[in-house]
Design goal:
The chain is of the alpha+beta class. Helices cover about 50% and strands about 15% of the residues.
């Protein structure tokens, strides 16, 4: 296998990009002391310098604008984040210099980023926010899942003398079809949908070249999954789409007895990646804002916790097992805290007809909450007439 297959797929806080060059600065802190009328100097050693990573990165393709915006959003977030370095793997870093972004007509369909990161320690003073810890745990799980997939897929290629290319192409085609069906149901701009479908067609056309390159195939699968977030319109819609892949499998019988090892590796990775992406999504403030009440968060927490536990039990490497267990713990902690802060809602049966304004006063002594009641209950066609026959959902006080 070429050395390129051993490189990590680069990302920052889960947003992937391609690395053109990545110079790294290491060394020790020193202070040079000079003295009058003496040519000699003394050098005081102040300890090890933190590793500094300069990354020349780019995003490219029909959906590059969405990929660019996703990376920009993550680079603007305060605090440390997980950098997956193509040569050094996962590092906890902070952005320590302004980012330069370059786009040009001559290089259409691409944005380049000049990034400078400095490694920081994982001290309690830095990583105390439960959401930050959950995002970092998701990054760890991403890396572990990638490594297990590449190892399993390579082993399948090496052991197989009767590896059937068509079987794997059929499997990836089935995955692409499912993703396209999901995306076509989103209320996105038609141009975005057309560009995405075309990118999937291009992927299918290149499958014959990708099948024997685990790293390249992995990057294409990640790219397809990553675009769900940008096209879904809402975070809850994206979560539902990822949920449709939690039990992903193929119903096509292989033509070769050697093919199942490779196809199982692909199916398992798609399940793991969808679950990790969903976990990263639900531990964000934006997702919490879209959820109505604490009961919904608790339900999501319990479902993802069970699935992460199942994935940990099925892991073939200790690294993936530990990463999935760590992600489950971080997710449960974060969503439990969010559920405590999130208002709950209850079902309400009216004894008589009323108005939305009157109901706000009756329930909360607060006329300003009329719009809240209307937004929670799309069955209210006329705020001036809320029939008693309509069951309602209202937030607690």
């Amino acid at each position: 296998m070429p050395w390129q297959d051993d490189l990590y797929n680069a990302s920052f806080r889960g947003v992937p990009f391609v690395v053109k060059a990545a110079p790294t600065t290491i060394g020790r802190r020193t202070v040079t002391h000079e003295f009058p009328n003496r040519p000699e100097v003394t050098v005081e050693d102040m300890g090890v310098l933190p590793d500094r990573f300069t990354v020349e990165a780019f995003v490219i393709g029909p959906q590059y604008l969405q990929a660019r915006d996703n990376l920009i959003a993550e680079l603007k977030i305060k605090g440390p984040g997980a950098l997956i370095h193509p040569y050094y793997g996962r590092r906890l870093v902070v952005l320590t210099a302004p980012v330069k972004i370059n786009e040009s007509v001559a290089e259409g369909g691409m944005a380049t980023f000049s990034l400078e990161f400095t490694e920081v320690g994982e001290s309690p003073a830095i990583a105390t926010d439960s959401s930050v810890l959950a995002q970092m745990a998701a990054d760890d799980a991403d890396l572990a899942a990638e490594m297990e997939f590449v190892a399993r897929y390579k082993a399948a290629l090496v052991k197989s003398n009767s590896f059937t290319l068509q079987d794997i192409m059929n499997l990836v085609q089935q995955f692409v079809d499912q993703i396209v069906n999901m995306v076509e149901g989103f209320l996105s701009f038609i141009d975005d949908i057309v560009n995405f479908v075309q990118s999937m067609v291009d992927l299918v056309n290149r499958l014959a070249d990708l099948i024997a390159l685990p790293g390249a195939l992995l990057q294409e699968l990640q790219g397809a999954l990553g675009q769900i977030m940008g096209l879904a319109g809402t975070l809850t819609a994206a979560f539902d789409s990822y949920g449709g892949l939690f039990d992903y499998s193929t119903d096509q019988p292989p033509n070769s007895s050697a093919t199942p090892a490779a196809s199982d590796a692909i199916c398992d990775y798609i399940q793991q990646a969808a679950l990790i992406n969903a976990s990263r999504l639900v531990t964000s403030d934006g997702f919490t804002a879209e959820i109505k009440g604490s009961k919904d968060l608790i339900k999501i927490r319990n479902e993802l916790s069970n699935r992460l536990g199942d994935q940990a039990a099925a892991a073939e490497t200790p690294q993936l097992y530990q990463a999935m267990i760590g992600l489950r713990a971080a997710l449960v902690d974060d969503l439990t805290q969010r559920a405590i802060l999130k208002p709950d809602y209850r079902e309400l049966a009216l004894g008589d007809s009323t108005t939305a304004l009157g109901l706000a006063y009756r329930l909360y002594d607060d006329l300003a909450r009329e719009q809240e009641i209307i937004s929670l209950n799309r069955t209210i066609m006329n705020p001036l007439m809320v029939p008693a026959a309509i069951p309602l959902e209202v937030l607690g006080r």
